[in-house]
Design goal:
166 residues, mainly alpha, 8 helices, globular
Length: 166
């Protein structure tokens, strides 16, 4: 299955630039990129190593078909904008952000970034992909928590799209 995607925003400059042509990306490649973004973000949260070094390590150690362009855009942006992203999801938490499991925090950073900056990806896809990663990597009930937080955040960041939902 293929998804239509555009280049999205230039994460390094914070500009809202769209590609002039749509790029068809296999869904499996994008899904693998999200998994790696979550893992790289987790590593960054725990180690506080330079995100460029972490990205380089993932490029060197990971083989197969991966949407590397997507990985690079999102993973490089998350550490740069972590405080802003956290400020967006913090009001929807039932606990202090420091009490979040690193997997949950990684997924909330990823989901919040996609909701805020990748409007070419439907909000339901963003939430579902984060839920699936939480089911695989998170604690027993973390997928429900991720769903709850992102579902509350979506109407704030995707007003028109969420108001149009059936």
């Amino acid at each position: 299955m293929l998804v239509n995607d555009t280049a999205g925003q230039n994460a390094d400059k914070g500009a809202d630039k769209k590609a002039s042509t749509a790029k068809r990306v296999p869904l499996a490649n994008r899904r693998k990129a999200r998994k790696l973004i979550m893992q790289a973000t987790y590593q960054w949260l725990l180690s506080e190593n330079d995100p460029l070094d972490i990205a380089r390590q993932f490029h060197e150690d990971t083989h197969g078909k991966i949407d590397w362009e997507y990985f690079d855009e999102i993973f490089r942006a998350i550490p740069k904008h972590a405080e802003e992203l956290e400020a967006l999801f913090l009001p929807h938490l039932d606990r202090n952000a420091t009490a979040l499991d690193p997997i949950e925090k990684s997924l909330l950073l990823l989901g919040t970034y996609e909701l805020a900056h990748r409007i070419d990806i439907p909000y339901r896809v963003v939430i579902n992909e984060c839920i699936e990663l939480a089911k695989t990597f998170g604690a027993t009930e973390s997928h429900k928590y991720i769903n709850g937080v992102l579902d509350k955040l979506a109407p704030q960041l995707r007003v028109a799209e969420t108001q149009a939902r059936p």
